[in-house]
Amino acid sequence: QVQLVESGGGLVQPGGSLRLSCAASKSVSSINYMGWFRQAAGKQRESVAGITSASGSTNYADSVKGRFTISRDNAKNTVYLQMNYLKPEDTAVYYCYANQRGLGYWGQGTQVTVSS
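Given the sequence above, the corresponding structure tokens read:
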């Protein structure tokens, strides 16, 4: 089982930056896949970015390419989402996700609000 705790959300102005953190209860290098999803009010949850443990390869939603970067720190068992040039449409609850041997785990979510 994997426990995930997100942090780093908040209120930011358009064009600003935030860095989200996801602390895992076990080594992130041992978790097959980790990613960030988001869910805006009244909308379905969508994938934002992901990273695989084996190759370290990353993937991004088209809407965030060039603005968001996912990374991990194996020593801290933490995955990050660096978000730059934030837009109002990035406003959502952001969730950390882990897939370990076919089982999915979710964090509790952290609110990101982009507004002037």
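The chain has a mean pLDDT of 95. Try to locate this feature in the token string yourself.
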